[in-house]
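Regression test attached.
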Amino acid sequence: MSALTMNLTATASEENSFDSAPEQTVVEDTVGFPLVDDPKIRARNASVFYGDKQAIFNIDLDIGKHEVIAMIGPSGCGKSTFLRTINRMNDTVDGCRVSGEFLLEEDNIYGSKMDVVELRARVGMVFQKPNPFPKSIFDNVAYGPKIHGLAGSRVELDEIVENSLKRAGLWAEVKDRLQQPGTGLSGGQQQRLCIARAISISPEVILMDEPCSALDPIATARIEELIAELAENYTIVIVTHSMQQAARVSHRTAYFHLGKLVEVNETEKVFTTPEHKLTEAYITGRFG
Amino acid sequence: MSKSSKPNATTERIRQTLAKRYRAEKRFRLYGVVAILFGLLCVATLFVDIIGKGHGAFRQTYIQLSVDYDADILGISDINDAQQLALADFSGLVKKSLRTRFSDVSGRKDKRQLYRLVSNSAEYDLTDRLKTAPALLGQSEKRWVLADDDIDTYFKSLNSSDGAFVGRTSEKQQQWVQSLIDAGQIELRFNSQFFSNGDSREPEQAGIGGAIVGSLFTLFITLALSFPIGVAAAVYLEEFAPKNRWTDFIEVNINNLAAVPSIIFGLLGLAIFINFFHVPRSVPVIGGLVLAVMTLPTIIISSRAAIKAVPPSIREAGIGIGASPVQVVLHHVLPLALPGMLTGTIIGMAQALGETAPLLMIGMVAFIVDVPGGFTDPATVLPVQIFLWADSPERAFVEKTSAAIMVLLAFLITMNTFAVILRKRLERRW
Ligand SMILES: Nc1ncnc2c1ncn2[C@@H]1O[C@H](COP(=O)(O)OP(=O)(O)O)[C@@H](O)[C@H]1O
Ligand SMILES: [Mg+2]
């Protein structure tokens, strides 16, 4: 607690323009409305530790059905860490420990009855760096349905691949070269291929961790359009370092600061009249 | 003023140090070139020496005899009687042919020298000949038979710049050789027996066929054991094992094993496989076992490096789509790591192919004439054969030794080239 305050005082004195009331620099409770009715994902008292170091502090957050929620905040504030608790990607990190309650609808994500393989089929993920498998475009998309046994026949598989690529807005560009390596595509195409791969197993939620940070503005614009389209069918959690992107694609925005959830509000409200001083400082570019 | 002169002074300074830096760079590059040239020179010397000494072994001296398959000398009345054929005096037939060719030779001593012009394998050659062509009985034909190794060495040295190597040949024998040369009845022919025969006390009959087959059998066992075990160990250690003191301990020990002198593995094989498990000695199975144990650390270390080199993003992609840990390994990690694993394995195999010391400990140094027909037949391997021949006193074994080294090097170069090609072919970009 005191470390947080000190850190901010240092920032304030350095910049000489940030004089805030002390009670506003201490994150006591999340301001705005972090909780919704009938959520898709419910996180309560969520904490994450890497060894002895705590990266996420007692976060309460709901993510609604068919909602696009953006997570913003300075780097190292725990956005990715929180995101990865939702599909238990943190399980693969040595020394990582998660506490709190996480529900995907009625199912306890960290409960003993939850199978991680099934969880990850229900919660898809798109990573920061496009990471297609070093296989053909077709095989990249077909892989998920294959291992989960979603296609009964070759025809069905072809259909799934085609539909996924269409929904990812990539079909027109690759339909004539499905057998060529996915790694031969451009960065933006690769990322759309990864999105096609993620939606090929019809997940309920798609997690996106800075999906456009490695892409040029045009490719970024395409992905943003795509996110808007996908929101009709999926719940999307997107981490982004671009506030414009958050403003363009999301319904609600969550602002993280040093492992704490500072403010969650309607995106428009966050970017026009933020409730918390820290949020305001961040979106006005005073630190980040 | 000071503002404009200051950058100039800095530039001047940089220029001065630049010249120095370039000199240092040039010097450094020169060291590298010298080192490489020295290495190449050593290799070239080795090759020139070995090829110079060994190329002769691929051709062997043959002498043409007119053989009269005389039923009386042979003592055969019925050509279809196998027993008669087995007991027949083909040695006498060879002697008779030589006496006919050099009819002026008389006296026991001279005759004995005359008979020593041809290899004692000549009689077996004629036996086989008559067996395959029974109609020749009572007929005569001209037949090229293998010359004795002393004659072979002498004949090969006749045109050499250092003068003829007389060795153990007598003056009479040299005259006979001259007479054969004049008649065109002695010549060098391609020595196919060198590749098909096993070892022999007679250099002209000795071949590396047995050793090559022994090496292949042994390497097969080595590969069949060490590749799957090595890859499984590497995959487990990299992908599934918890990181704790035990796995650290295992890792340190694997690295230590890679540095253990190979002869220790031979002693281990002797103590455990032979004395405890009673695996027979001198057979490819025991050789393969010992070499597999010796090669394991190499394969494990290179396989782990190959697995480590697989980008984590690929693993994450697999996990993210819901692949189980085993599926991630089988579908994504192994295919990408395979080229590196295979390269390490082939290099390990090349090492095993050239290994001698541990095999001496487990009896693969025995004198074995027969080409092994299976994994449990007594066998020797190429490097041990080289060791044995290098130790033999006969002059003719010098060129055999070098020729065997050439064959071994050819195998090694082929394997290493194969490793490079395999890596290039299988390597995929991501
Ligand atoms: N694998 C890890 N091991 C240890 N610490 C980690 C690991 N991943 C992230 N952290 C730490 O957790 C904090 C949050 O990181 P992260 O969630 O990646 O931040 P963000 O995505 O917001 O930039 C950082 O302080 C980071 O150093
Ligand atoms: Mg991050």
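Expected vs. actual: identical. The CA atoms of residues 180 and 249 of chain A lie 32 Å apart.
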